[in-house]
Write a structure and sequence with these properties.
The complex is a heterodimer of chains A (369) and B (57).
Chain A lengths: L35 E5 L11 E5 L3 E8 L4 H4 L4 E9 L9 E9 L16 E9 L3 E9 L4 E9 L6 E7 L13 E11 L13 E2 L20 E11 L15 H9 L2 E5 L4 E9 L2 E7 L9 E5 L5 E5 L2 E5 L3 E5 L3 E6 L10 E6 L5 E4 L4
Antiparallel strand pairs in A: 1-3, 2-5, 3-4, 4-12, 5-10, 6-9, 6-12, 7-8, 7-10, 8-11, 13-22, 14-15, 14-21, 15-20, 16-22, 17-18, 17-21, 19-20
Chain B lengths: L2 E6 L6 E6 L5 E6 L6 H11 L9
Antiparallel strand pairs in B: 1-2, 2-3
The chains are: A mainly beta (369), B alpha+beta (57).
């Protein structure tokens, strides 16, 4: 049948130069490390992938992948959030203390912003946020290549209520991002700080990084009381300037695509009590196996192996060889080898089935930090 | 987190163990001379501060 008409009403024009979301795991669906991590007093990626807690001397916190079942963010299509609960408060932080959550990005993924050129683009950052505390939060785009920053603020108008925020950031004709796999941009949501990070003014134009401006406008002080918590989801970074009416819709990815993009930075290879595949004995005292990563890693990753009595086992030749941990041999972007020489006991040339036991797990970490 | 020990895994000196805060509940292996890897970057700072990687057993 010949096409006779296309109605313009069927189409919506979206100005979006990127084909996939610039923010990975913006819906907080993937949490390879843990859904809940308690007692956190130092920097790390603890729960939802790509979301890093940065804390120094400012309380103790639980980091959670929160399951949403109601509220405006849930109604907008978000079933998960990254949440921080203060469990030990510090109402009088030292001058250099800090508490923030940050999202790091590779320079090669940011070239679309044309930063450092006369054609530099503006930025729009949108997200859903909920907090026990009303007040003002400061968000910074921090240029890690050129030590520059630009800020915007948002208001928590109602406690314990999901609110959608759309923030605009200026274009920057100074300081191009490196076109590589290193960290060029860090998005910072400040939650609390000491005086070193206050006292200035939140810069709405790009400037040379000044610590006193980094949380100059924020006052939600999440580390100041154990009654306080803060949560975020639906993080969306767009090229250009949008408001709540013109913002393109959040690009929901299926879980598999989302997980694969996260695995470029962190790959939980095995959790407790699962098979690790085939191992072979190079000698009685060395058992080893090859590993293929599901996606190309950002950089040659570190192997993180839990270590404890008989956390791993190789079944070989009608018996068991218990291992306490595993080490990395050769490490590449796509493949690596793992081995044990401390507890290995077998016959050269024999093979066996490896698996984890108890609290044994292996992960490969190539996160930006 | 503070590095408390770094040791070559084998005499080939291609991979090291790194221990943070004397925490031996995890064993972290990372490639030598791997800038951009957070563990190696931490080790490089630790070396620059005057520390030395232990030889392999």
């Amino acid at each position: 049948m010949a096409l006779s008409k296309i109605s313009n009403d069927m189409f919506t024009t979206i100005s979006r130069p990127n084909s996939t979301p610039l923010i990975i795991n913006g819906d907080m669906a993937v949490a390879q490390r843990s859904t809940s991590a308690t007692g956190k007093t130092s920097n790390g990626f603890y729960s939802c992938d790509r979301m890093e807690l940065s804390v120094s001397g400012l309380g103790t916190h639980t980091i959670i992948q929160e399951s949403l079942t109601s509220g405006a963010a849930f109604n907008a299509g978000f079933a998960n959030a990254w949440r921080i609960d203060c469990t030990t408060a510090d109402g009088s932080p030292g001058s250099g203390d800090e508490l923030l959550v940050q999202y790091p990005m590779e320079g090669q993924d940011l070239q679309v912003f044309k930063k450092g050129t006369t054609s530099a683009e503006k930025w729009t950052l949108a997200f859903w946020v909920k907090s026990t505390t009303t007040g003002t939060g400061q968000v910074n785009l921090s240029d890690m290549d050129n030590s520059r920053q630009c800020s915007a603020t948002y208001t928590i108008s109602s406690a314990d209520t999901w609110e959608h925020k759309v923030l605009n950031f200026a274009a920057d004709t100074t300081g191009a991002f490196d076109d590589d796999n290193a960290e060029s941009l860090r998005i910072e949501w400040w939650l609390d700080s000491g005086s070193n990070y206050e006292g200035g003014a939140a810069p709405t134009a790009w400037e040379t990084t000044a610590n006193g401006d980094r949380n100059a406008a924020g006052n939600i002080n999440i580390g100041s009381a154990t009654t306080k918590d803060w949560a975020i989801t639906g993080i969306q970074l767009e090229v250009g300037e949008f408001n709540s009416s013109t913002l393109p819709p959040f690009q929901h990815e299926n879980y598999g695509d989302n997980l694969a993009r996260c695995q470029r930075y962190y790959y939980r290879m095995i959790n407790e009590n699962v098979s690790m595949g085939t191992f072979s004995y190079y000698s009685s005292g060395r058992v080893e196996s090859g590993v293929s990563f599901p996606v190309t890693m950002r950089s040659a990753p570190s192997l993180v192996s839990t270590s404890g009595s008989s956390y791993f086992r190789v079944q070989r030749n009608g018996g068991d060889n218990n291992l306490n941990d595993l080490s990395a041999g050769v490490i590449g972007l796509n493949h690596a080898s793992i081995f044990n020489t401390d507890e290995s006991s077998g016959t050269a040339g024999h093979a066996g089935l490896g698996y984890s036991r108890g609290s044994g797990y292996l992960s490969w970490d190539a996160e930006l930090e | 987190m503070a590095i408390t020990k770094v040791k070559y895994i084998t005499s080939e000196k291609k991979v090291v163990y790194v221990v943070y805060n004397n925490d031996n509940s995890v064993k972290i292996s990372t490639l030598v001379n791997n800038p951009g890897n957070k563990d190696w970057d931490n080790i490089q700072e630790w070396i620059d501060a005057g520390n030395t990687i232990e030889e392999a057993d």
